[in-house]
Fold each of these.
Amino acid sequence: VFLLRLLCKAGCIDDACRHVADMGRLGYEPDISLVTELVNDLCKASKWKSCHKLLTGLYNVGFIPSLATFNTFFSCLCRAGLMQQACKLLDDMVKLGFTLDVYTYSIMIHTLCKAEKVDEAYKLLKAMRNRKCEPDVVCYSTVLHGYVRLGKQELAMKIMDEMRRNNCSPDVVTYNSLISMFSKVGDTTKAYELWGQMRANGCVPDHISYTALVDGFCRQNKPKECLRLVLEMLKKRLKPG
RNA sequence: CGGAUGGUGCA
């Protein structure tokens, strides 16, 4: 397994792939995480067919990869815009008896948002609860950011309220989306207000938070604020963009 | 015992 991991890291994906397939044929159970990483690497190289071959090959010798493996493949297909393949995979997953988890849903939500079908994404979010899969902070933040990209500030803030009502605390990514939204439209007051809320809720601003806020002050021509923030950033050893 | 999959900024 260690050797195979090295092969992957060294960029010899195809070799690693062959060896895993061989192991399967010889009756050894391949390491699940390794297979998942392999799937990820194959997809990044756009080798969809190799990926599919690997999985079906393993399946044919009786090894069924984990849900994480399928989620990885699913995510890659969605990102590549290969929706017909992605749907088919989803279908297979269900047929294999997997119960879609919060990761699977977040991938679907993200895909819908990217296609600007944010309302549909929101519907899916609500549907999750009926399917006994509680949306987490990532699902909410994804939809929220979908609205941000469409310039729908009120709806984005609504999602924020909704997640709070459902006992899901916004995290640094959630706040970053909102801060950048207000910064872009020049509302540094609201951006800064959220900045305060973020810290009050125990979230530590990261380099993205700072960049988003600085960007807002820059657009407003407020160099002193910018400077202050950048210095603060350096003190915390965060890299400015 | 670790190890795998989802969301955010500027350019």
Amino acid sequence: MLKYALLGFLNYTPMTGYDLKQFMDASTSNFWHAKQSQIYATLKKLEQDELVRSHVEPQEGRPDRRVYQITEKGREDLQDWLSQPVMDVEPRKEKLLLKLFFSADQSVEKILTQLRIQRSLHEETLERYQNQTKEVIAQFSASEDMAEHGRYWEATRRFGELYEEMYIRWVDETIEKLEE
Amino acid sequence: MLKYALLGFLNYTPMTGYDLKQFMDASTSNFWHAKQSQIYATLKKLEQDELVRSHVEPQEGRPDRRVYQITEKGREDLQDWLSQPVMDVEPRKEKLLLKLFFSADQSVEKILTQLRIQRSLHEETLERYQNQTKEVIAQFSASEDMAEHGRYWEATRRFGELYEEMYIRWVDETIEKLEE
DNA sequence: GAATACATGTAAAATGTTACATGATTTT
DNA sequence: AAAATCATGTAACATTTTACATGTATTC
């Protein structure tokens, strides 16, 4: 699936694995993320499958850049994937909930601390979506050929915002019940 | 991490890999899930590490059962994990959002169809949390020695409920904006 | 008569994480 | 003087998914 994230970005414009990581961190990390090493490995595989092509741009004083661009075959594959509807609900994994589920023998004080830590982490995340991510999207949508993309980027950002608000609400509710 | 889900359940009572799968599907699938094959593989590893022990119970007409029970070492490991606070925000992966992010060139009609499919899938999931999962928890909490656990199980179920409500709200909001 | 439940697992592939390695330039 | 940024990657490991294989008993 990372495959399609990379093809999606390369469909905008050619760039390096390093650039792709920056873009993902700034825009899709809310719903899709990857480590730098995985991005490099996946790009290599995409090139083998001829969905992307690369060339090296020599640089002085800095490491050379390997710039990837999407091929016609890559565009078709991406288009194909985009047009297929998602037919399932994505399963979640939430360590904190797993812990909480088995926490009946822990002290309530310890659990409350856990929850308060999560609350502040999710508050930070929420603020990031509301400020930083929002700005990044606004900047990119400013250019004319990217304006149409802005609507969709904003929809995904909004999801992150709603998610974090929901999470904080759930923590507050749970803390309240435990304090009774 | 599946490791701790299995230890957590085995800390209630000894059971087979098959039983563990049933329990997880009925209770933790909202925030932690695993395939049957992964459960068997993980149990094998847990036994090698002496965190669980197993014995075979012969059966007639049905395959023999391999019943696992947690060891003292396993209990300590679980306890240790439970007492450590979670210090990060769990990253999500949402295929639909990834698709939506890159969908500016798709027809609005196609995207709306995508969103409507997701809406109905998440509505089903929400209802499951509100009815089936709620009942399962009520049943298990009925026995005296499990009553205290019920509070925590309910908190995790509530998370699923809030999540699905949020998701549906987001879909509705997004559909509305696209229809403008 | 067909499908589901019960119960176990193996093998291969895909995916993702962690740790390591290099080295100049720029910022703190 | 130390840390972060730019830029690449490899290797080992861990986790997860998919597909295969088996066979009885019960339910529809």
